[in-house]
Specification:
By secondary structure, the protein is mainly alpha-helical. It contains four helices and no strands. The protein has helices at 3-13, 23-35, 43-54, 59-63. It is globular and about 30 Å long. It starts with a helix and ends with a helix.
């Protein structure tokens, strides 16, 4: 099973609704953390900007 599939299953078990706008942000941020746990040392400086760029958004929108 692929990492993304495992993340999706876990989020559903936790009760996160895939229809939520933040689902893709959450799923991708968990995937990024699985690949590089040290990225958590800079959530606002590393994770949010990367997600914003990937999904054509802004870091503040990702944080919300």
């Amino acid at each position: 099973m692929e990492t993304r599939d495992k993340i999706s299953i876990l989020l559903r078990k936790l009760g996160v609704n895939p229809a939520n706008v933040g689902w893709v942000y959450l799923e991708e941020s968990i995937n990024m953390t699985a690949e590089d746990p040290m990225i958590l040392n800079g959530i606002t400086k590393k994770v949010y900007p990367v997600l914003a760029k990937k999904f054509n958004s802004t870091p503040s929108r990702v944080e919300r």
